[in-house]
Amino acid sequence: MQFTNDSSMSSNIAKTEFSEQDFRQFQQNLRKETLMLMEWFSEDVFENRQVMCGFELEGWLVDQNCNPAARNEELLARVNNPLVMAGLSKYNFELNVAPHPLNHCLPEFLRGELQTLWDSCSRHAREMGCQTLMVGILPTLQDRMLTLQNMSSMQRFHALNREILRTRSCHPLKINIEGPNDRLEVVHNDVMAEAAATSLQIHFQVPLSKTAAFYNVAHVLSAPMAALSANSPFLFGRELWDETRIPLLEQAAHTPSFVDPTGRPVSRVTFGRDYVRDSLKEVFLENLDGYPVLLPVTFNHDPGMMNHLRLHNGTIWRWNRPLIGFGENGRPHLRIEHRVPAAGPSIPDIIANILFFYGAMLHLQPEVPQASISFEEARTNFYAAARSGLDAQVRWTSGNSMPVETLILQHLIPGAILALAAAGFRSSDLRYYLVDILAQRVASHRNGAWWQKAFVKKHGPDFRMLTQAYLENQNLGTPVHEWSI
Question: Which GO MF terms are attached to this record (predicted)?
Answer without folding.
Answer: glutamate-cysteine ligase activity
